[in-house]
TrEMBL record:
This is MMPL family transporter. Coiled coil: none annotated. InterPro entries: MMPL_dom, Mycobact_MmpL, SSD. The chain crosses the membrane at residues 21-39, 230-249, 256-276, 282-303, 324-346, 358-382, 414-432, 613-633, 640-662, 668-688, 709-729, 741-765. It is found in: Cell membrane. Belongs to the resistance-nodulation-cell division (RND) (TC 2.A.6) family. MmpL subfamily. Keywords: Cell membrane, Membrane, Transmembrane, Transmembrane helix. One of its GO terms (cellular component) is plasma membrane. It comes from Natronogracilivirga saccharolytica.
């Protein structure tokens, strides 16, 4: 147990060496600057899962076996007269230009795709669909009616490996695929490649509305946008907070000291992030605004307390000692409860949530440590007597008047206030039943953004780019050659075609039927009846060097792959489809092991993880903070009173999301943890001050009034800061950040009303008696707290 002499020693150490501690913080900031400069941002769907997660292990195994589905940048456009010499030759020149880009493995377009043909000797071979000879014939008039190009287009449209990949919209839209070298697929290399790509596309944009998409392109542009957003968050939030601090304190020290403390805190956290191998992503990018708010709130509490003590004509030394004693313990407690709220996110299997919780919790504790050492040290060294200008007293008087009115309402109508609050909360709880968990691959970017619009072009004119893959493991070598299996795969294609969310699907069965048509020169679209014939066709495919077989079967032909293209409809619908497909797949392939995978499945699997993480996070936070409240107040009624105002903001925010149709996803799920931490901080400040007032001998009315007016002032000021900080997120081009900002602001406003109106009304209603046993719990048999104990309990 920490005794008075221990606390005096700590305070004495802080005040005895102000220059030493300031130099230490400055030195650490200097050494943190270099790693912080090297911070990077990235987006990786696989990074949402632990490395040993079953979903990731299976996805990587299949990627190693069949190749990855996320290594292509896609350039797509359309023209009503695409199949003319002018446009086809322009596509050829563009493809050749793109082949000159760095870090590329190959470029595939209409000009280098091939069709199967039967040679004169009866063997299978491949020819390019497009050739210079054919276009020269058209150019010289040998084919004035364009029958050659019409025939080529018709053959391409009937090829399942061309239509929906390289060609779409009845032959008026095309896509060019830039396949990246997997070993060179890094953010810096992609950024250089995309920069050069944009330069090469510039001259072609006068002819076409060119759309660039694909997961590598999206990841890179996502990171570029995220970097700009982070800088914007910190800049705008800092500016708003500086303005608010000036309106509150009207002194240079009252502005520079709090903002400098949070800037140093953010620097330390970013440095730790880099040194531990982390990077910025959609959730961790919001750490800076959160720390800006939390850090400044700590400073406001301590500056306000110091100002009050100086106005009571206490010496600078005594004022600083009491400020550290009173607010140091209070701010430490609120920092711990806030950190606990964020740390509970580490129970999640969603890795961005886990990292967000860890680094934000660390940042909250760093903010406390920097504040407790820097702020008293600076105040001790400066000659200014007051950190607050007299002009700001007008603002504080207005807040005091508002809080007096709030207290009268809570006192005179406490039953009405409590009843209405609980009724409104109950009504919002209905909205919770309408909540659903739903995340999309492109969730973070707003639908109206240029990045998404380019992706939608591919959805509309070619085919969606998100693969939903079905791996059928026959359990025996060459099991994929079984004609009966291939016919059942054909049934699977028809089954997949029943879903509007899937545009097309291909498989080894599709490939074999295509070869059979060519080799037997007939129009019938059927699977061969002979296993030997299927094996022979596969051998012929190997001899042609076609890439199709290696993409469809594994080396032993034991596993075969069905590739479907799905729209980004969200995890909720994908999981519905998966639940519907599973029994049908089991019935269709009873002797085989069937696995669903691909980027679409990775995104959909986040659903259960998010719900589980959210439930555990809130439950653990509620449990830990309940224990802290019980240890702090040692009164059953006060524990209940402390928890109810913290649940109300959560219920109202969740209900609003349900009514507004806002889905739970990684970015919106953490709102509840943030909200709980913020609400608990204010409740702790309020109830600790109420306990102190009661122990001093104040009756219930006077204790509630003093608490509402004095602690309420700090709660309002910190809420203004929080609203400014999170309000900045409401302007984000990332839809998830925008929702996080707006919903957190709603929660802050709700928590403010709950703490300053509902909480005092609830105290009047429940009338807790905390005098019995509380004083003796502080110091054995002593019935009245000592001066030190009263100071230790007081809160601002």
């Amino acid at each position: 147990m920490i005794r008075k002499n221990h606390i005096d020693l700590i305070i004495g150490q802080i005040l005895a060496r102000p220059r030493t501690y300031l130099a230490l913080v400055a030195g650490l900031a200097f050494f943190a600057f270099l790693p912080a400069l090297n911070v990077e941002a990235d987006f990786d769907l696989e990074g949402f899962y632990p490395d040993d997660a079953e979903t990731i292990v299976e996805f990587q195994r299949i990627s190693d076996e069949f190749g990855r589905d996320d290594t292509s940048i896609i350039v797509a456009f359309r023209h009503d007269s695409l199949f003319t010499n002018e446009h086809l030759y322009r596509i050829k020149r563009l493809s050749e230009d793109l082949e000159m880009l760095p870090y590329t493995k190959e470029v595939r377009s209409l000009w280098n795709i091939r069709e199967f043909v039967r040679s004169d000797d009866g063997s299978l071979s491949t020819d390019k669909y497009l050739s210079d000879d054919d276009l020269d014939k058209v150019q010289t008039g040998e084919n004035a009616t364009g029958r050659i190009l019409d025939d080529i287009r018709s053959r391409m449209l009937n090829d399942p490996f061309v239509y929906g990949t390289f060609l779409g919209s009845d032959g008026t839209a095309t896509a060019i695929y830039i396949n990246l070298d997997e070993q060179e697929n890094t953010f810096s290399n992609r950024r250089e490649l995309i920069s050069r790509l944009e330069d090469k596309l510039e001259s072609y944009r006068q002819h076409y509305d060119i759309n660039v998409t694909g997961l590598p392109y999206f990841r890179t542009q996502y990171v570029e946008t995220l970097n700009r957003e982070i800088l914007l968050y910190v800049s705008v939030a800092s500016l708003l907070i500086i303005i608010i601090l000036w309106l509150l304190f009207r002194t240079v020290i009252g502005v520079l000291l709090p903002i400098s403390i949070v800037w140093v805190t953010i620097l330390f956290v970013v440095a730790v992030l880099v040194m531990t191998g982390g990077h910025f992503e959609i959730m961790s990018s919001t750490i800076a605004p959160i720390l800006l708010c939390v850090g400044v709130a700590d400073s406001i509490h301590m500056l306000s307390k110091y100002q009050d003590l100086r106005l009571d004509n206490k010496s600078k030394k005594r004022s600083l000692e009491e400020t550290i004693l009173v607010l140091g313990s209070a701010t430490l407690l609120t920092s711990i409860t806030t950190a606990i709220g964020f740390m509970t996110l580490m129970t999640s299997d969603v890795m961005p949530m886990r990292r967000f919780g860890l680094y934000t919790a660390l940042g909250v504790l760093i903010a406390f440590a920097v504040t407790i050492f820097v702020l008293p040290s600076v105040l001790q060294l400066i000659k200014t007597r007051m950190p607050v200008e007299d002009k700001s007293k007008v603002f504080f008087r207005k807040i005091g008047s508002l809080l007096s009115s709030t207290h009268r309402t809570a006192r005179n109508h406490y039953r009405i206030v409590v009843s209405i609050t609980l009724l409104v909360t109950a009504l919002f709880s209905i909205g919770i039943t309408q909540l659903k968990t739903n995340s999309r691959v492109f969730d973070d970017i707003g639908e109206s953004s240029h990045l998404i619009q380019q992706s939608r072009f591919l959805d509309e004119h070619i085919a969606p780019q998100f693969p939903l893959e079905i791996i059928i493991d026959t359990g025996k070598e060459d099991g994929a050659y079984d004609p009966d299996l291939l016919r059942r795969i054909e049934q699977l294609h028809n089954m997949l075609g029943e879903y509007d969310e899937i545009s097309q699907s291909i498989s080894f069965a599709t490939l074999i039927k295509r070869v059979d048509q060519v080799m037997r020169d007939h129009q019938e679209d059927t699977v061969p009846d002979s296993r030997q014939l299927v094996a022979q066709y596969d051998l012929l495919l190997d001899l042609t060097g076609a890439s199709g077989p290696s993409r469809m079967n594994d080396f032993e032909n034991r596993q075969t792959r069905v590739i479907a293209r799905a729209y980004d409809v969200g995890s909720y619908r994908i999981n519905q489809m998966r639940d519907d497909l599973k029994p049908r797949l089991d019935a269709l392939f009873p002797e085989s092991s069937v696995t669903l995978t691909g980027s679409t499945i990775l995104s959909a699997d986040l659903t259960g993880n998010i719900v589980s993480a959210l439930t555990w996070s809130i439950g653990l936070a509620f449990l830990f903070i309940s224990v802290i409240m019980a240890l702090l107040f040692r009164n059953a009624k006060l524990v209940i009173i402390s928890l109810l105002p913290n649940l109300i903001p959560l219920i109202i925010t969740a209900g609003f999301m349900g009514f507004a149709g806002i889905d739970i996803r990684p970015s919106t799920a953490v709102i509840f943890t943030i909200a709980f931490g913020i609400a608990v901080d204010d409740s702790i400040h309020y109830l600790a001050r109420f306990r102190m007032e009661t122990l001093r001998g104040s009756d219930l009315r006077q204790a509630v009034k003093n608490t509402t007016i004095h602690t309420g002032r700090a709660i309002i000021l910190t809420s203004i800061i929080l609203l400014a900080g999170f309000g900045v997120l409401g302007t984000s081009s990332f839809e998830s950040n925008m929702l996080m900002g707006l919903l957190t602001c709603l929660t802050i406003l709700t928590a403010l009303l709950a703490d300053l109106l509902f909480l005092p009304a609830l105290i009047y209603w429940m009338n807790p008696d905390i005098t019995a046993g509380q004083a003796s719990a502080l110091n054995g048999k002593q019935s009245v707290p000592s001066e030190f104990q009263r100071a230790e309990l007081s809160q601002v």
